[in-house]
Design brief:
With 170 residues, the chain is mainly α. It has one domain. It is built from six helices and no strands. The longest helix is centred in the N-terminal third of the chain and has 35 residues. It is elongated. The relative contact order is 0.14.
Length: 170
């Protein structure tokens, strides 16, 4: 199961990187088109879709790499037992909100598909297509938070050791 989850997070991160490259390609193509005197219809919208896809698909990957910003000001002052309890509460809250986000993102994709919702731009893209990346990213983040919560409940380390990273920087 661990190999599958790590593959899922890695694939999500790789897709995020590909969408980041796609965003760059769309911006460069748009700039080149303006310089050469032609207009690429919808290139701004597609660059935005690619940027949103990159952001959402990278969420789980960055969480599992320990790269999300954590405010540990309160946690550092708590004892081990209270710190563990507070982390469980924080993870439970994150699970609730990420689960709701994943659910409503998937629902939005379904509704956009059902109602044939299209973008207001001149490209008239069916909106369910770019929304899929948001729904997938939210779902993979929810799975990653379930994974983190299970690791925290079992007492295993859920994040890479921050002190080891600090030693590498010195």
């Amino acid at each position: 199961m661990r190999k599958f989850l790590d593959l899922l997070y890695g694939t999500s991160g790789a897709l995020a990187a590909l969408f980041m490259i796609a965003c760059l390609a769309m911006v460069l193509a748009s700039v080149a088109g303006r310089l050469l005197g032609f207009n690429l219809r919808g290139s701004d919208a597609y660059a935005g879709y690619a940027m949103a896809a990159a952001g959402f698909l990278a969420l789980a990957y960055t969480l599992k790499r320990g790269e999300h910003i954590r405010v540990t000001l309160v946690l550092e002052r708590l004892g081990t037992q209270w710190r563990h309890r507070m982390e469980l509460i924080a993870h439970a809250v994150a699970l609730f909100f990420s689960g709701a986000f994943a659910w409503f993102s998937a629902r939005l994709v379904y509704q956009s598909l059902t109602f044939n919702d299209i973008s207001q731009g001149n490209d008239a893209t069916p909106l369910w297509i770019p929304q899929i990346a948001m729904a997938l990213g939210a779902a993979v983040l929810f799975i990653a938070l379930i994974d983190e919560f299970a690791l925290l409940l079992s007492g295993r380390k859920s994040r890479p050791d921050e002190s080891a990273e600090l030693k590498l920087m010195e």
